[in-house]
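Suppose a colleague, Dr. K., hands you the sequence of a protein chain of 224 amino acids and asks what its three-dimensional shape might be. Before reaching for any lab equipment, you can write down a predicted structure in token form. Begin with the sequence itself:
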Amino acid sequence: MALINRNTLSPFDWFLIIGVIAASLGYSILTATFDTLGIIASITGVVCVVLCAKGNILNYAFGLVNVAIYAWISFKAQLYGDAALNALYYFPMNIIGWVSWNGRRQVEDDTKVKARRMTFRQRLILVLICVVSVTVCGYILSKVGDPQPYKDSASTMLSIIAMFLMVRAFMEQWSLWILTNVISVVMWVILTVRGDSHAVMMVIMYLFYTINSINGHIQWKKLI
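The predicted structure, expressed as tokens, is then:
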């Protein structure tokens, strides 16, 4: 019973999960369309990040489904960087994360991870790595004709770093997730205007991601 109590979803968690389901189905009804892949990606994605905010290792099970579908949706939308990021990095990192968190559980029969915080020196190094990586990647993208090189660079590089911090169970991941989620909302809004078939579902998903990122930052302070 103690295990259930520690991992019970809060009313806010249920708001996020039920909210993304209602928003997805509502949009489908209003537009008389049913984007099956988009809806599955949205729901599994939000469940994944909600569980991650709780420090629950089961987030990786939903994450595997989400990144596989999102990689395909991104590929179809010609967001090849996002497609590669999800298929070649997020997918294997979800497996690695499961193994890593399994070794950092609070107690043997629990599903919650032991969260940790960076030192001041580590945070300075993190900021430096973020600034340099985004700048260098943005410069390279600008040379190959990317119309929004530094936005794409920030979304990609900060996501890579945030996922690494997530696997290592550092709470600083949430600051980076907030930034990348906001950038992703803007990116998919632009694609919505251009008429991409899955874009609206992705906007809905990333809006809920952004809300959850803020909640995750709060929850992980409590875990520490």
